[in-house]
Write a sequence for this structure.
């Protein structure tokens, strides 16, 4: 039998979009692989299922609020994705995305309702995309957030074949007279620290710079960073801790004890706490109350850095800060610790003349309070 030439009328037509490098069939397969994980985040409020042009969420429950305020947040994971790509492990990046987006909503006391995601990649590998979205769905389920939609975009020629980036946006709701923030904070309030699970998703450009400078490969064993057999890549991909459910329970069960919350992300401890304190107040965060976990110490040593030099970049073991009424601080710390999140007092909110020295004065365009870290870190060999 004679073979047909490319120009033969019997030859299958070549999709010009496929010829340009975009594989729509791979995208459809990725959706099929992730469908069940996404559906598990859906309660009766979600309408229309997976695959629509827009996600639908029944907002009837908002009628129970006297004055519902919608809270929204958007973020990404940053260059942490480069490590996932380097070791071909993509099932935890989605948890990081949920942590960066949904936990920002909780800062104002809002309960998350729904979330969408966006993945841009050089080429769609269906299993890889499905792994990422399964992680997002896992985090959404753990925080009580419906994953109602998303988009995967293939960008050949702009991104490398194995490159991708992720972003997300979420919406939540809070009663107007229950919004947390600087206006609730009072002199004498106690600042509680909630332990992080590690680096979370900030400061990875510095992490990658240090690792590269030390000649370390992500597949190399890292006995100082975890259990026997853990590689550098695996240790550095430790997912962001999710605080949503624990904090919402604390807010609901402690009768106005929580006045303000701060998510310790880019900018570090002092700058993020300063954002949620009122003008004219100040606080000193006592370093001696905790010991930064090994990952921070090992990286700082490799980079020939003092830990204090990294305070504006890494969370150093504190993922969230809660400003609470002094008389309820002990109960709040115990409640969070019982939830599996080590929590301890690091400072007190003050007014009036503050001590001489360098304080962080607000951040991210917020003219808030003033914060500085004081003392020396504890020398014990682990986090609080």
């Amino acid at each position: 039998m004679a073979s047909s030439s490319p120009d033969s009328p019997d030859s299958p037509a070549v999709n010009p979009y496929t010829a340009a490098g975009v594989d729509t069939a791979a995208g459809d397969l990725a959706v099929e692989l992730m469908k069940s994980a996404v559906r598990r985040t859906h309660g009766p409020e979600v309408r229309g299922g997976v695959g629509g042009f827009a996600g639908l969420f029944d907002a009837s429950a908002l009628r129970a609020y006297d004055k519902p305020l919608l809270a929204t947040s958007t973020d990404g994971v940053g260059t942490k994705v480069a490590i996932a790509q380097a070791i071909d492990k993509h099932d935890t990046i989605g948890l990081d995305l949920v942590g960066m987006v949904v936990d920002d909503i909780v800062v104002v006391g809002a309960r998350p309702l729904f979330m969408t995601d966006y993945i841009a990649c050089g080429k769609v590998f269906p299993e890889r995309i499905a792994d990422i979205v399964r992680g997002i769905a896992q985090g959404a389920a753990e925080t009580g957030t419906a994953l109602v939609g998303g988009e995967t975009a293939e960008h050949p020629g702009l991104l490398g074949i194995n490159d991708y980036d992720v972003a997300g946006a979420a919406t939540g709701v809070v009663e107007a007279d229950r919004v947390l923030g600087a206006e609730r904070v009072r002199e004498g309030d106690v600042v509680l620290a909630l332990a992080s699970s590690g680096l979370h998703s900030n400061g990875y450009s510095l992490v990658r710079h240090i690792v590269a400078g030390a000649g370390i490969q992500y597949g190399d064993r890292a006995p100082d960073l975890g259990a026997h057999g853990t590689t550098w890549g695996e240790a550095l991909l430790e997912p962001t801790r999710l605080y949503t459910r624990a904090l919402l329970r604390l807010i609901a069960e402690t009768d106005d004890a929580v006045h303000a919350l701060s998510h310790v992300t880019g900018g570090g401890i002092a700058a993020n706490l300063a954002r949620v304190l009122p003008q004219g107040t100040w606080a000193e965060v006592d370093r001696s109350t905790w010991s930064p976990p090994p990952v921070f110490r090992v990286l700082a040593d490799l980079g020939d850095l003092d830990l204090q030099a990294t305070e504006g970049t890494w969370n150093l073991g504190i993922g969230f800060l809660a400003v609470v009424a002094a008389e309820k601080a002990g109960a709040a710390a115990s409640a969070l610790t019982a939830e599996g999140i080590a929590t301890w007092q690091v400072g007190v909110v003050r007014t009036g003349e503050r001590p001489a020295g360098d304080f962080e004065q607000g951040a991210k365009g917020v003219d808030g309070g003033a914060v500085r870290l004081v003392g020396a870190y504890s020398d014990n060999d682990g986090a609080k």
